[in-house]
Amino acid sequence: MPEKYYITTPIYYPSANFHIGHCYTTIIADAIARYKRMTGYDVFFQTGTDEHGEKIEKKAKEAGVSPKEYVDKIIEDAKDLWASLGISYDYFIRTTDKNHEVAVQKIFKKLYEQGDIYKGSYEGLYCVPCESFWTESQAVDGKCPDCGREVKMVSEEAYFFKLSKYQDQLIKFYDEHPDFILPLSRKNEMLNNFIKPGLEDLCVSRTSFKWGIPVDFDPNHVVYVWIDALTNYITSLGYPDVNNELFKKYWPADLHLVGKEIVRFHTIIWPCMLMALDLPLPHQVFGHGWLKIDGGKISKSLGNYKDPREYIKAYGVDAVRYYALREVPFGNDGNFSEEALISRTNADLANTLGNLVNRTISMAHKYFDGVTSNPKINEEIDNNLISKVTSLKEIVETKMNELKVNEAIDEIMDVLRLCNKYIDETTPWTLAKDETKKNRLATVLYNLLESIRICAILLSPFIPDTSNNILLELNTKKTDYASIEFGSLEENLQLNEPKILFNRIEIKN
Length: 509
Ligand code: ME8
Description:
The chain is α/β, with parallel strands linked by helices. Helices cover about 50% and strands about 15% of the residues. The model has no long low-confidence stretch (mean pLDDT about 95). Ligand ME8 binds near residues 232 and 261.
């Protein structure tokens, strides 16, 4: 039986249409999911939407529709966006799904009955756009530490989850699982800023708005944010039915991929909730950095962004995917700009990859009517290329296991750059002038075509359409991961005509 791999994105708030920041997480999760599938894992890749809360209630009111009508429209748009980006999710969870709502009520009741949730009253600072509570000490000059906007003092009867009870168990878990939080700097931040100063119990219900899952034994209350949102990762698998096949097979999650601002919820609140439910904890939470625009956060509430489909329309889906995956070292913040997207596409996809494929297949047509052969007239210069291509699969595997996605891609690009250099050094057009060099020429072209085939397979999780187009041009049957072995490309293969994979984009001033 193949090993399972359960990967999730956050469930996003459908308070407005999604922007390139949401695409960023989702594209990376998709690339990892595709990579794992290609390498033989039984993958469950989940994304979805977090639909309740005061902010959405307000937005719907402003729009003159019911909250459900409001979110339905955005979810339709989100699914269209994910389709246009080739996101291969296995399940899309909505927190308004009936089975999720019922499961959340059961979880809430269970935690209440076993004494992990109790009734009290809440007084605190609340940021409406971020739907976050802050203590006096967390607020910065009386403003939200995340978005910098005004917070308001609220006081109401509420249920609380006993986070404090799990503090020691959580620290022990961190100690025993050094890779639980990545990058490492975020783990230290959690320990030093939140856990060591002492965990405060968490407000888990509200009475001041209605758009949420009612607490069934106290219907004045709706379940507040994190018990509703975080549990999506298990309710989708059938929890609380622990005998559900999906739950048995996929839980615990292997990777929760999240933005750095919600690492705290995923590495403190979520593990404590799971401990209270007596369930195994996820293997890993990776908190990536933010894509910024002009140094500031791209944000739905600031409205400083374009519809990502405009970039797809202008430059193609793989240009957008590639940029998201390659541009920013995974884990760090990075700036998003259309100019950088264009330069990246031109440099890597049009010049390095597109050009290489085009000139190689064109030469194969020109000199051999597009038919492959490998007479193996090898020279010293071939060794470097062949050994680099041969070790590439393993190098990419190591990088992907460390979630260094941008580095994995760059390793493949390095090999493609080496192929271009190999053409410049072997000068096939000179070999073509000498009839006695015909077999050497065929060998050179075979080495190039074979390197391209292997790189195309390895690129498929990242730029699936382009990878597919290249393999179609090669007309090869050797397209799966297992066929990555130098020399597997068929001889006597009739190559298809080359097509332009990426046009160079002119930068408009
Ligand atoms: O936080 N750069 O939803 P949300 C990179 N519903 N990633 C970004 C980004 C940016 N500029 N902007 C958004 C929520 N993201 C909760 C999550 S999970 C149980 C509940 C991505 O709509 C990133 O993954 O505010 C971030 O964590 C997430 O979108 C926040 O989405």
